[in-house]
Specification:
Layout: H1 9-13, H2 28-67, E1 71-73, E2 81-86, H3 91-108, E3 114-118, E4 121-127, H4 135-149
Antiparallel strand pairs: 1-2, 2-4, 3-4
Amino acid sequence: MDSEYLKNDASDSGAVVDYEHWQLPLGRRFRALKLWFVLRRFGEEGIVNHVRQGVVHRQLLEGLIAKHPDLELAAPPSLSLVCFRVKGVDGEEGNDVQHALLRDLKKTGNCFVIHTKLGGEVVIRMACGGMEQSQEDVLAAWGVIEAMSKGRSGGKKNQ
């Protein structure tokens, strides 16, 4: 329950209530109930279309990151999830650079990204599978990411 991507300053300080702990239990019956609700609401075709659209959005973001001079993919993308990082910085300095970019992205309030750790290195995660997410939303988030990441590779920090 303490995965890296669930950690944040507000939860760590106790400033907010973590409703993630106030959900239906993960027992077999309740997992089936949650699945039943989703199938009932969207149907098989709706779920398939949703997953496919998330993959299309992820491929768009993946392509933009691959072309960016200061960013790189940190892991092979999976379904709608993209993990990326600032190029050319490793170790504790690299983790500081990744956290600084994450903090600056969150401060804008214009895109939602979180972090995780892969092999001890901090990376930034963006999921492109929101229920009402559009290509325009992905491009708007990319505009923020692109602007905030300029000049950060190789240990340089954006001023």
